[in-house]
Amino acid sequence: MRVAEINNNKIVVAERETITLGDRMGAIVKVLGCGLCGSDIVKFREHISNNGTVLGHEIVAQIVEINSNSGFKVGDTVVASHHIPCFKCAYCRGKSYSMCDHFKETNIEPGGFSEYVFLSDEHLHYVTHLKPRNLSNEEVSFYEPLGCCVRAVKRAALSPLSNVLVVGLGTIGLLMGQALRAFGMTVHGCDIMPDRIAKANNLGINAFNSSDLEFVHNHIYSHTGDIGVDCVFMTSGADAAIPVALESVRLGGKILVFSSTPNNAAYNNNDIYYKELTVLGSYSPKPQDLEISLQLLTNGEVNVKNLSTVYTLDRIQEAFDDTVSNKIMKAYIRF
Ligand SMILES: [Zn+2]
Ligand SMILES: [Zn+2]
Fold first, then answer.
1. Residues 6 or more apart whose Cβ sits within 8 Å of residue 85
2. Ligand nearest to the CA of 87
3. Residues whose Cβ atom is located within 5 A of ion ligand 1
4. 2-141+308-334 falls under which CATH superfamily?
């Protein structure tokens, strides 16, 4: 089988022995496509992963071999995510599902950028669903990234009708903005790239350019009865996004951190204290968030048409490079 693996800071297509189920519970699936996630880019760019690592986890695939009572059968086209919480440990009991050891250990094998993938029985039971008929493979591959956004919306625990700001209108910002709108919020969004701002406006997010901090402040205050937004969702990994958040959030508001920043930029202690801010992180979805994600995609409340650019597996290095250089917003690797 063909896989795309890391080899000395490059993504190289290599041939490996095709995996089979053997006497394991679970399924072997033939990958039809896999989205290229921002986290794959980070792992590639920061050289976190060893040679031979197969990245990718946003898979759409067809079951070719199965041993499970999960209800799926050979021939089913499914969408799957990669991590499953144990639901029993102290983290899970504290609702920090993505901090669970089991969550971090579980994965699809060898990774999504592989012609064939092994899904464990747990994957089939908790994080795998039949592909809805009204969605294309490419569209349904947003199941996992949108699930991450659903998790963030839930973590923020806002009342409907809240005013929110999404900082950063890349693919994740556009998913987050639409998810927030689906939950009843009034959604503002900002970025410094005009094409992203235009795209966001087309998707019903009130988007504006955030290059100038004074403009940001005036714009947000004029749209929120002069108090600022109830919550800022930080989908941008730029250090410059932090002043935008502090300029926009209302006294007593929340900032939801959804991205790493290269220089580990910080929020000020005294801002948090005197403005009584809540700064909270959101990392990865639990199974119920993924179910909601699939509903939002299926009923069209989140529109992902034309958000990704299709590449074949042979061109996967180009897909990584084009994403890094912002030539495209998101890549989908078609097998
Ligand atoms: Zn992802
Ligand atoms: Zn756990």
1. 91, 92, 97, 98, 100, 102, 103, 286, 287
2. 2
3. 37, 144-145
4. Medium-chain alcohol dehydrogenases, catalytic domain (3.90.180.10)
